[in-house]
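Priority: medium. Attachment 1 of 2:
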């Protein structure tokens, strides 16, 4: 534990760094705080902090923008909160090769704004892009509905610089797209929730900003699962290539589109002629007894901005208890999950806002209500998901409830592999304790 004596020692050791001491009475409802907060500005400073913490066996929680503060972790306060808020900036940009290397504390939207004059962007679509940092996005493998067209962080990251718990710097991957030698170590760290090391620098491949984009909304007048599913299959089997194919439940559709019906969101990005052609295909096959509306360019951008800010996150302070589930099932089962979640919401007296990707099988369900009702809803939804052969991860929940609800679900037969890797890399278990699968 950080004592006044060790705090004084830490200040002497780190000299120029900003170090804030958190008062004992201040408790954040999401936890994942620190008795002291340190703000490094360089990679070497991150290394020195971890080396000191590892030597003295001080626990460390890592934070970027704070949007994922409610995702995992059972510590209200670690000894040290390592904030990357001051560790920002572009390291290297190769417009011709369409690659970018950036410091991990840089907010995602700041990077996109930098790339815009080059007509380039990072092909990821995280939630809360104004606050989420590229390091946090990579560590949580965060993505939204456009994963269908963009892929995930694991598809777009080509190189990482990591700082191990003992301060050692390691580099995986490279700075070119065609990099195929040996095991892809990047995938070990992406999605590991900062339990194996601190992401220092990220190299990603870029793509051109599309010339034109649009969104089609197909709203179904009745909750006919088979009709919605059959239409989704038609779209998937066609020659068109939507960037996203997302079904919204009535509550979320009402909030975002003012139509309280199951609504299929189909988005396109390409040159205008290609987008128009794909829209025409949809207009020729959409079912009877449905309504179709469209948004293009600025209207579509405004919709997406609203969409990526509708979930509860680590920066909000709500009067009611809020939770977010990330669910993975067979892609065509997402409509079953959304309908089952609505029924569970009614029986548990909670509000449910949900969406799921017919192309990816990933669903996000936001739950709001009283404490016991939210916990009951999580348990019932997870049970339904498991029956369909899927998984349900709780990606946002107050710390008091994370101590009751198993965020990652039951351990699997492969848990020993995770344990072995953690023990090898972080044998003192100082980094992001209990933040990953099986309590790692």
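Attachment 2 of 2:
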């Amino acid at each position: 534990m950080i004592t006044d004596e060790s705090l004084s020692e830490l200040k002497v050791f780190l000299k120029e760094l900003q170090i804030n001491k958190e008062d004992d009475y201040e408790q954040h409802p999401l936890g994942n705080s620190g008795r002291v907060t340190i703000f490094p500005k360089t990679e070497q400073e991150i290394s020195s902090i971890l080396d000191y913490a590892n030597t003295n066996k001080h626990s460390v929680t890592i934070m970027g923008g704070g949007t994922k503060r409610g995702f995992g972790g059972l510590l209200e306060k670690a000894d040290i909160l390592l904030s990357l808020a001051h560790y920002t900036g572009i390291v290297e940009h190769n417009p011709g090769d369409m690659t970018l290397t950036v410091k991990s504390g840089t907010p995602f939207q700041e990077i996109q704004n930098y790339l815009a004059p080059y007509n380039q962007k990072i092909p990821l679509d995280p939630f809360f892009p104004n606050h989420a940092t590229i390091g946090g996005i990579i560590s949580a493998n965060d993505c939204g509905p456009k994963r269908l067209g963009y892929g995930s962080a694991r598809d777009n990251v080509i190189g990482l610089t990591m700082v191990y718990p003992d301060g050692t710097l390691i580099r995986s991957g490279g700075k070119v797209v065609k990099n195929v030698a040996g095991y892809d170590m990047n995938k070990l760290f992406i999605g590991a929730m900062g339990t194996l090391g601190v992401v220092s620098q990220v190299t990603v491949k870029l793509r051109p900003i599309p010339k034109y984009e649009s969104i089609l909304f197909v709203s179904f007048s009745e909750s006919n699962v088979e009709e919605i599913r059959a239409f989704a299959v038609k779209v998937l089997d066609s020659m068109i290539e939507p960037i996203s194919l997302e079904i919204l439940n009535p509550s979320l559709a009402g909030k975002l589109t003012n139509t309280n019906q199951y609504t299929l969101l189909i988005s396109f990005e390409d040159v205008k002629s290609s987008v128009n052609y794909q829209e025409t295909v949809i207009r020729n096959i959409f079912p009877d007894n449905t309504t179709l509306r469209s948004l293009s360019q600025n209207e579509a951008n405004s919709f997406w901005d609203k969409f990526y800010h509708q979930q509860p996150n680590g920066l909000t302070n709500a009067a009611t208890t809020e939770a977010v589930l990330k669910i993975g099932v067979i892609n065509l089962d997402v409509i079953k999950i959304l309908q089952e979640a609505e029924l569970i919401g009614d029986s548990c007296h909670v509000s449910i806002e949900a969406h799921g990707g017919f192309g990816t099988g990933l669903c996000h369900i936001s739950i709001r209500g009283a404490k016991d009702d939210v916990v009951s809803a999580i348990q019932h939804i997870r049970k339904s998901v498991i029956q369909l052969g899927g998984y349900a991860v709780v990606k946002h929940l107050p710390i008091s409830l994370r101590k009751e609800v198993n965020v990652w679900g039951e351990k699997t037969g492969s848990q020993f592999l995770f344990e072995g890797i953690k023990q090898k890399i972080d044998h003192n278990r100082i980094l992001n304790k209990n933040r990953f699968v099986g309590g790692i």
